[in-house]
Design brief:
about 300 residues; mainly beta; six-stranded mixed sheet; about 50% strand
């Protein structure tokens, strides 16, 4: 049987335990049920929620406000986010199409698109060589946007260049100065016509040295006046029509007997020694740099 002293100590301990539990129990319950925290993001034209939401921002600088709240207390902060376009425009040359032969004035045409908009487009006319050709002085040809078609256009006079093979490219620039290039499109210019002057009849005697004469003029369909085309960079090839694989004479511009010369800005002349055997010959006129055929004609020798 407990003494009164022991009973008093026991009662005191129980009272203290009750006081402690009464104090801690609400704290323990609070720790087990945390408060919900909400994250709200807002900006001009949009909003999102969550700790790290995925969003799409417009081009330029946008001020974003973050509001954090636990239901009782709220706090805010702001941040400026700048979005820039680093992707070059997509560009396609639509005219001329690949390997098209052009005459007279043409309209170079290209289409271009970009997320931030295309601010300018330029055409480049070059000679073949490498992926983007070799510049020949027709660079940065500033195109104009056609409001009706949405295409970029530039009027180009093919008479500015000799007949031959060329490339055209387009470069588009967007509002962030990103540059996009089109693929190079090959084309040719065919404005010249070879007009045979002499020999023009089958009265040329075989075995003689004879002058082969011709004129280069613009086609009548391009210019009815057919102005003379002056060019010191041609190659004239002569061969028997029956045997085109064997070139009998090759003439370039110069002063020697087998060179060609230009007389009075009206005639191209080269001297050719014919065979003693009567036959038909073919004369071809080539543009040397481009290795492109301008045109040709044939003549016949007789006994």
């Amino acid at each position: 049987m407990k003494s009164r002293k022991q009973l008093a100590i026991t009662v005191g301990i129980l009272v203290m335990v009750a006081i402690v539990l009464g104090t801690l129990l609400p704290l323990l319950v609070f720790a087990e049920v945390p408060q919900r925290i909400n994250y709200g993001w807002t900006w001009a034209g949009g909003s999102a929620s969550g700790v790290s939401p995925s969003v799409v921002m417009p081009m330029g600088t946008t001020v974003v406000t973050l509001e954090v709240s636990d239901g009782a207390l709220t706090d805010t902060d702001t941040v400026s986010i700048t979005v820039q376009d680093t992707t070059p425009p997509a560009v396609t040359v639509e005219f001329p199409t690949a390997n098209l032969a052009l005459q007279d004035g043409v309209t170079l045409t290209a289409s271009a698109s970009d997320l931030s908009g295309v601010s300018a487009l330029y055409f480049y006319v070059r000679e073949p060589g490498g992926a983007q050709g070799n510049p020949i002085g027709y660079e940065n040809l500033s195109a104009t946007l056609n409001g009706d078609t949405g295409k970029w256009e530039y009027g180009f006079d093919t008479l500015k260049l000799p007949d031959g093979y060329y490339l055209v490219l387009a470069k588009a620039v967007d509002t962030y100065n990103n540059e996009g290039w089109s693929a190079a499109v090959p084309f040719s210019i065919r404005n010249w016509a070879v007009i045979q002057l002499l020999p023009s009849t089958p009265n040329n005697k075989a075995g003689r040295t004879m002058p082969v004469k011709f004129s280069l003029r613009v086609k009548a369909s391009v210019d009815p006046a057919q102005p003379f085309v002056y060019n010191e960079n041609l190659t004239i090839k002569i061969y028997a029509t029956s045997n085109p694989g064997v070139i009998l004479q090759t003439s370039t511009f110069g002063t020697r007997a087998r060179n060609y010369r230009i007389e009075n800005n009206t005639l191209y002349i080269t001297n050719f020694q014919t065979s003693n055997v009567p036959m038909q010959y073919t004369v071809e006129i080539w543009r040397t740099d481009e290795n492109s055929l301008v045109g040709g004609f044939a003549f016949q020798t007789v006994k």
